[in-house]
Amino acid sequence: MTRKTIKVSNITCAQCAKSIESYFDELESIDAKVLVTSKKVIFNYDEETYDTLKIADHLRVIGYHPILTSEAHEKAKKREQIDLLITIILTLPLLWTMFAHLGFNIFVPEILMNGWLQLAITTPILFYSGRHFFKQAYHQVKARNLGMDALVVMGTSAAYLFSIYQTIIHRDHFHMMPDLYFETTAVIITMVLLGNYFESRVKEKTSDALQSLVRLGAKEARLFKDGKTSMVSIDDILPGDELIILANEKVPLDGIVIEGSSYIDESMLTGEPMPVAKKLEDKVVGSSMNIVNTIKIRVTAVGSDTILSKIIKTVEDTALIKPKAQRIADKIASLFVPIVVVISLLTFILWTIFGESGNIASAFAPAVAVLVISCPCALGLATPTSISVGSGIAFKSGILYKGGEFFELANKIDAIAFDKTGTLTKGHPEVIEVVGDSSHMIFTASLESHSNHPIAKSILDYYDRDILEIKDFSVLIGLGVKGIINDKMVYVGSKKLMESIQAKNTFDDQAYIGKGYTIFYTAIDQEVVNMIVISDPLKPDAKHMIEILKSRGITPYMITGDQEETARYIANQLSIEHIYFDVLPHEKAEIIQKIREEKQVVAFVGDGINDAPALKMADVGFAVGSGSDIAIDTSDVTLMHTDLKLVIDAIDLSLATLKNIYLNFFWAFAYNTVMIPLAALGYLNPSLAGIGMGFSSIMVVLNALSLKRFKFKTEAKGGTI
């Protein structure tokens, strides 16, 4: 299945989303998911059956306007502005008459009070400016999913038809016919369009993170083929192609360095400000920045397979998350329009029977006001707007939300299990101390330079000077390495290796036993010349994070493949009482299941690679890493860099987002609960009701944007928790 995201200019609310989704659900080999806040539709389809142009044609059939290019997007915005301007100009004279109808003592030219003139002005407003309301209402009726457009059509059409009837009845009167409602039709259309316009501008701010991600991608690449270099579109690059990247150029696509070396700025992905050294066979990520030297890469992923595309997909999918509260609201919204229509009819009947004048005209205004003041959009927008803003803030901080249940589960987490290596610890060993004659380190480093073991890397990081030539190098599995240097037999390895070769060892390791250290020795011609103390140190913020979790009543667990002695030492440093050691990767999921039997909601924090089963088994999975494929695929939350404070930040921001959603629901329900009765009792003019409906949706979006003021509790001097 192919994935394609298409911008649609006239998506306004959740009912639009339902109309589009239900239409494509009836077609084979394609499905659609709508991002209301960013006015986009995500399609998954069989490329043998559909292409972008065919999908766009289907959208037009149901009254929606696809935007396939940036130029078309600008044209659509300009057309929207021109339509709104024309509507406002035509509505102004009718608005003038409305004030006269409301009893204001103002001068109104008699010609403007003529019903036929008002009909001539209102007709283009209703059927040209309001044309998309009719189109979308028609498709909502077909899909049995009535929304705001249906209410607008019913309210404005009723006012329009009733006014035509009144004009015909009073055709002998040239002016001052107070029972005309042409201005109601015009003002409602204008106010709804104006509200949609401002709402669209505000919504654009809710998808800033997604837009900035899309802008990160390069558009062209320097292809090296048959000894020649040429600039080509990214879309024409295939896996295996070779690309040249100059200094201060973006890396176009994911690949492997095959020539040259340089420093790459990957802050867009990891959040780390320091550039990363890249040499032969190192991986580079598309949209990162090459800083120093020209390099050549072999492309490994294009299109939707790149890491950036997967991140964009995750951010898009986050906006589709529907917590339980939103699912309940959706059910209410599906019944909302029929209930409002019934209330409007009852209002009309009761006003006709019990109204002061007892006629149809006096009953008409409150009945139309009920239709127009109602706003199902606010209910539909409550969740997606808040989640869009929240996920944007999260991404800028290095957090990718994915799991739909996380927003509801975050405040219920009562246990968090941590993988040790790479999660609680830095994940790469470091030389803590060298005991013995330091001049012998040249022998140690020379031998380790031929090994790719993590311990070897830590020794070479510690000793970064010149090394000696080696002969007859070999790896002693589980023990160490050996080789001949300057005609001397040199061994580097464990105490067990030293004992097996019967090397003379005068070094005492008792001070380091039980503290989580790994001890290696160097022996030259059967005599141990140094002792190297190596450790995988704790992350600086690990202990403080565990303290915060405990203060919140969350029980920490540690799961590691290390031996008991090392595991207990690390756990004691962090004050973690619950420890599982000597655990194989596939056993971690079983342990998570065991913890779930004791606790309510269990989270797991791991590196997202060998911890994939545990991440899936946990109620909430946190993948700590750099956004690798497996992390994004298996976790509910991906932490883009290794700072553990992001675990707390992710929980806190999700709680703030959930509170914002509930506040939106409160506003949406309170607005409709208060305003519909006021309209039914005759306290709201239908034209003013149109203003109120637009105001309601805008308030929901503005409340969502208030999330941008959220401050992480872990922020402190120095940027640590």
Descriptive keywords:
Calcium-transporting ATPase, cytoplasmic transduction domain A, Rossmann fold, 18% strand, alpha+beta, 721 residues, 25 helices, 7-stranded mixed sheet, Alpha-Beta Plaits, single chain, disordered C terminus, 6-stranded antiparallel sheet, 27 strands
3D structure, described in words:
This protein is 49% helix and 18% strand. It is α+β, with helices and mostly antiparallel strands and 721 residues long. Among the domains are: 2-57, Alpha-Beta Plaits, CATH 3.30.70; 219-307, Calcium-transporting ATPase, cytoplasmic transduction domain A, CATH 2.70.150.10; 399-426 and 539-640, HAD superfamily/HAD-like (Rossmann fold, 3-Layer(aba) Sandwich), CATH 3.40.50; 430-535, Calcium-transporting ATPase, cytoplasmic domain N, CATH 3.40.1110.10. The strands form 5 sheets. Strands 15-27-26-25-16-23-24 form a 7-stranded mixed beta sheet, with helices on both faces. Helix 3 runs antiparallel to helix 4, helix 4 (115-129) runs parallel beside helix 7 (182-206) and helix 13 packs antiparallel against helix 24. The two termini are 43 Å apart. Residues 716-721 have low confidence and may be disordered.
Write the SSE topology.
Elements lengths: L1 E7 L5 H12 L4 E6 L4 E6 L6 H10 L4 E2 L2 H32 L13 H15 L1 H12 L5 H22 L12 H25 L1 H9 L3 E6 L2 E6 L8 E4 L3 E2 L3 E6 L2 E4 L1 H4 L5 E3 L4 E2 L4 E2 L4 E7 L5 H12 L5 H31 L5 H14 L2 H21 L2 E3 L4 H4 L5 E5 H5 L5 E7 L4 H8 L5 H9 L8 E6 L3 E6 L2 E6 L1 H6 L17 E7 L2 E9 L6 H10 L3 E5 L4 H11 L3 E3 L6 H10 L5 E5 L5 H6 L2 E5 L4 H6 L2 E3 L5 H36 L5 H20 L16
Parallel strand pairs: 16-23, 16-25, 23-24, 25-26, 26-27
Antiparallel strand pairs: 1-3, 1-4, 2-3, 5-6, 5-7, 7-14, 8-13, 9-12, 9-14, 10-11, 10-13, 15-27, 17-22, 18-19, 19-20, 20-21, 21-22
Helix pairs in contact: 3-4, 3-7, 4-6, 4-7, 5-6, 6-7, 6-12, 7-25, 8-10, 11-12, 11-13, 11-24, 12-24, 12-25, 13-24, 13-25, 24-25
